Amino acid sequence: MSSELPYHEHARRFFDQYQSVDFDQVHCEWLAQLPAKSGMSLDAGVGSGRDAANAEYE
After folding, report:
1. pTM of the model as a whole
2. Is 24 in contact with 15 (CB distance < 8 Å)?
3. Pick from 21, 26, 33, 42: most CB atoms within 10 A?
4. Cα gap 7→11, rounded to integer Å
5. Is 58 within 8 Å of 31 (Cβ atoms)?
6. Is 39 within 8 Å of 11 (Cβ atoms)?
7. Are 50 and 18 in contact, with CB atoms under 8 Å apart?
């Protein structure tokens, strides 16, 4: 069996589950560690864009 087959068969459920948790819930424990001044970062282009779309923390 191919390793991507389970993901392919359940992709919609996985996506909905991932999206059901918001940015603050996922990152609340480390957000205070971010510097006050914005800077450069690497966006690896993984995930649904849920976190990158959160304009409050830009």
Report:
1. 0.53
2. no
3. 26
4. 5
5. no
6. no
7. yes
Contact 38/58 with Cβ under 8 angstroms? yes
**Can you tell me which residue has the tokens 């991507």?**
4
pLDDT tens-digit readout, 1-55: 566 677 788 889 988 998 899 888 888 898 888 888 877 777 676 777 787 766 4
Distance CA 32, CA 41 (A): 17
**CA Rg value for the chain:** 15
Q: Torsion angle of alpha carbons 23, 55, 34, 46, nearest 10°?
A: 60
DSSP-based three-state secondary structure for 5: helix
Instruction: Confirm if 32 and 4 have CB atoms less than 8 A apart.
Output: no
Locus of tokens 């649904």: 48
